[in-house]
């Protein structure tokens, strides 16, 4: 990790707790006790039980995971990780199409083919049954639904989106949100403001959305529908939207997050996409990207989990203590996360 993270200095304990609270570390396996236990003890409030890169690309869980991971195993591992404490967000990717981290562990969500022929109430009920079972496992947040309207080439979202028709994305996505939140799962509508086409995967390439502003805003109507359906959280995208901000990735852009807050009237939790994606970092360090995201208005920062997590949290608290990040912005973000975690 960069040298800035190794220069640990004493920091205010409240700032340090706040800094732990604003990170959502992602893990692709269960051998994580040594990182997660101290993270939660120091104020962490969220973890993402994720999938491997191979599973992400395949859009399905591996045969090995399906064979070894039962519902009882999943629930027991979460209990061990959290020590039975409440107030911790346990997030997973559970998309209508594409990535379903709970594949084989909970009742299936409707397929897209099914959803397009189902009434809204039927979709909502199927999503409720899925989420109710997930809640019994200890899961509290779905990083879904995907509300992007994809009409062109987009290797990042290929096989993961609901429809090329904004009205269908709005209808089906809103029913998903109502269903899972009725079961006690926080929905995270993603990836604001929507990426109708991208030339490459932002997780591996510094790529930007060049769609004209009028089309961006037209496609973003799906997020208005998600907000009307009372989504508790919105994830902002990982690549620059040039029509709004030519320099910064959406999830670290004051202009894009300001559009979500002011233009779309969203008052809930704002989640970043992967902070360590090339299209998000754009040459910045992970620390500077995290500080930029918080300063822009993001509340919960998605980051790869690992041994670097402790020093990253310390560095963010140190930055707030030195005034490089307004401490009140860090506190505001942490309080939003804790409020969602406490539900």
UniProtKB/TrEMBL annotation:
InterPro entries assigned: GH (IPR017853), Glyco_hydro_3_N (IPR001764), Glyco_hydro_3_N_sf (IPR036962), NagZ_Beta-hexosaminidase (IPR050226)
Matching Gene3D superfamilies: Glycoside hydrolase, family 3, N-terminal domain (3.20.20.300)
Name used for this protein in its record: Glycoside hydrolase family 3 protein
One annotated GO molecular function: hydrolase activity, hydrolyzing O-glycosyl compounds
GO biological process, one term: peptidoglycan turnover
Superkingdom assignment: Bacteria
Coiled coil: none
Membrane spanning residue stretches: none
Alphabetically ordered keywords of this record: Glycosidase, Hydrolase
Ranges where the Glycoside hydrolase family 3 N-terminal domain occurs: 88-339
Pfam family, one: Glyco_hydro_3
Source organism of this protein record: Azospirillum lipoferum
PANTHER family per the UniProt record, alphabetical: BETA-HEXOSAMINIDASE-RELATED, GLYCOSIDE HYDROLASE FAMILY 3 DOMAIN PROTEIN
Family, as annotated: Belongs to the glycosyl hydrolase 3 family.
